[in-house]
Amino acid sequence: MWRDLAPIGRSATSGGYFRQPWRSAEEELRAWFAEQAAARGLALETDAFGNQVAWWRPDPVPGRVATLGVLTGSHLDSVLDGGAYDGPLGVVSALAAIDLLRKRGAQPSRAVGVGVFREEEGSRFGLACLGSRLATGSVEWADVEGLRDRDGVALGDVTDAPDDGAGGILAEVGCFVELHVEQGRALVDLDRPVGLASGIWPHGRYRFDFTGRADHAGTTRMEDRADPMLTYAMTALAANKQARLGGARATFGRIDVAPNGTNAVPSRVTAWLDARAETAELLADLVAAVEKQSTERAGRDGTSVAVTAESVSRAISFSRDLTDQVGAGHDWPVLPTQAGHDAGILAGAGHPSAMLFVRNPTGVSHSPEEHAETADCLAGVEALADALTSLGV
């Protein structure tokens, strides 16, 4: 399966992946998943947004009361120029875990579904975990159909409104167990191939709009300029400093400049801050401190700045009971994560959730250098199969 996926959406230049939703590479991946489901005799369900769940259901037994199923899986889309493992490892491992359970002779007493949530990364329409948010009803279609990608295409132009209501594709789900490559070095430091997640830090995406005055790069004296790029530059440095002081995370990873000319002072700079902290209070303090310093600098530069919170996700604590059940009989370490995941959305919407992590030898993620060793991936499959067994699959 991994060999089949490797070339899809891969850049010949960087080796990274471009698997944005509703583009050819991601559509090919969705078709591949449907083929894998069919090859295993799994019943595939797809909602209007494109979220997919392939079900392995138990044989009906007269008089037995049906139990809500266990959902596993992850996502197949990527960040721009991303790595191979973030998302697809959870989907491939889920299919492989079903193969392993069947090899063990398992006869499930409750259904197990392999899910693929769409637009998890938010790399096209800007809102992370959009598929799982819609599936759980965490966001309303009316609030997101107008989201636009970098080319100005609206979400509502590429997909239909969900037609089955919130929770339709999740109606059979009793709990969710997501396997994911670790996006850090904790398992490396602990010398362990597999771990469990305790929870997710609160995090948000904030748009900073810096406005100044376009002017000539050669004839305009430095003291006569109203240059929003200077205000942005100081803001990026302030974010770095504030995050380091507070043990948080702050990243300006995307900017848009107008008129974007080499020989022109910009009139506008728009930049997006990704901020994360251990608690909601620390996150709010971090963003407030950055905004304060940015506003003060704008006053000195003759520019202005406006800050808009485009999305904010609260802290998530995964179900302790479910995590204990998944980890029963193993001594896997339990770790917090600073990355957002579909499991966090389902947990926040009331679906008990747990996460398994597979060791990342470098800790690098959202990059072509993202990697996991085959032996660790196979250990992850074993761990997921054991977890599903512990949950009655």
UniProtKB/TrEMBL annotation:
<feature type="binding site">
    <location>
        <position position="276"/>
    </location>
    <ligand>
        <name>allantoate</name>
    </ligand>
</feature>
<feature type="binding site">
    <location>
        <position position="75"/>
    </location>
    <ligand>
        <name>Zn(2+) 1</name>
    </ligand>
</feature>
<feature type="binding site">
    <location>
        <position position="121"/>
    </location>
    <ligand>
        <name>Zn(2+) 2</name>
    </ligand>
</feature>
<keyword id="KW-0378">Hydrolase</keyword>
<dbReference type="InterPro" id="IPR002933">
    <property type="entry name" value="Peptidase_M20"/>
</dbReference>
<feature type="binding site">
    <location>
        <position position="205"/>
    </location>
    <ligand>
        <name>allantoate</name>
    </ligand>
</feature>
<feature type="binding site">
    <location>
        <position position="86"/>
    </location>
    <ligand>
        <name>Zn(2+) 1</name>
    </ligand>
</feature>
<dbReference type="Pfam" id="PF01546">
    <property type="entry name" value="Peptidase_M20"/>
</dbReference>
<feature type="binding site">
    <location>
        <position position="86"/>
    </location>
    <ligand>
        <name>Zn(2+) 2</name>
    </ligand>
</feature>
<dbReference type="GO" id="GO:0016813">
    <property type="term" value="F:hydrolase activity, acting on carbon-nitrogen (but not peptide) bonds, in linear amidines"/>
</dbReference>
<feature type="binding site">
    <location>
        <position position="263"/>
    </location>
    <ligand>
        <name>allantoate</name>
    </ligand>
</feature>
<dbReference type="Pfam" id="PF07687">
    <property type="entry name" value="M20_dimer"/>
</dbReference>
<dbReference type="InterPro" id="IPR011650">
    <property type="entry name" value="Peptidase_M20_dimer"/>
</dbReference>
<feature type="binding site">
    <location>
        <position position="180"/>
    </location>
    <ligand>
        <name>Zn(2+) 1</name>
    </ligand>
</feature>
<comment type="similarity">
    <text>Belongs to the peptidase M20 family.</text>
</comment>
<feature type="domain" description="Peptidase M20 dimerisation">
    <location>
        <begin position="205"/>
        <end position="299"/>
    </location>
</feature>
<dbReference type="InterPro" id="IPR036264">
    <property type="entry name" value="Bact_exopeptidase_dim_dom"/>
</dbReference>
<feature type="binding site">
    <location>
        <position position="366"/>
    </location>
    <ligand>
        <name>Zn(2+) 2</name>
    </ligand>
</feature>
<keyword id="KW-0479">Metal-binding</keyword>
<protein>
    <submittedName>
        <fullName>Allantoate amidohydrolase</fullName>
    </submittedName>
</protein>
<dbReference type="InterPro" id="IPR010158">
    <property type="entry name" value="Amidase_Cbmase"/>
</dbReference>
<keyword id="KW-0862">Zinc</keyword>
<dbReference type="GO" id="GO:0046872">
    <property type="term" value="F:metal ion binding"/>
</dbReference>
